[in-house]
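Both lines are quoted verbatim for reference:

——
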Amino acid sequence: QVQLVESGGGLVEAGGSLTLSCVASTSISTFYAMGWYRQAPGNQREFVASVTGRDTAEYLDSVKGRFTMTRDNAKNTVYLQMNSLKPEDTAVYYCALKLGPFHSFGYWGQGTQVTVSP
């Protein structure tokens, strides 16, 4: 069973930056894609970003230009660099993986809280 562990969350003022990390218990190079999702109180979990093994990235429209997702296969780690943070970015951020192109994201981590103050 693959385990994903997120870290790097915290409290930051609007306009600030945070970098989230997600470490996998096994090689991430075997997975089709890695992704980040988030869930704010009272909301459903939503897609934030993903990167495939070929480094094709996708982003939620509201984070384009502010968030950057990268992967380091040697460290079995993916990152989410978040700049120009807004209060509406406040959520629990989860890491997940996709086994193949026709799979859904799964194997969720425990999440890391990001809180952006006005």
The first strand starts at residue 4 and ends at 7.
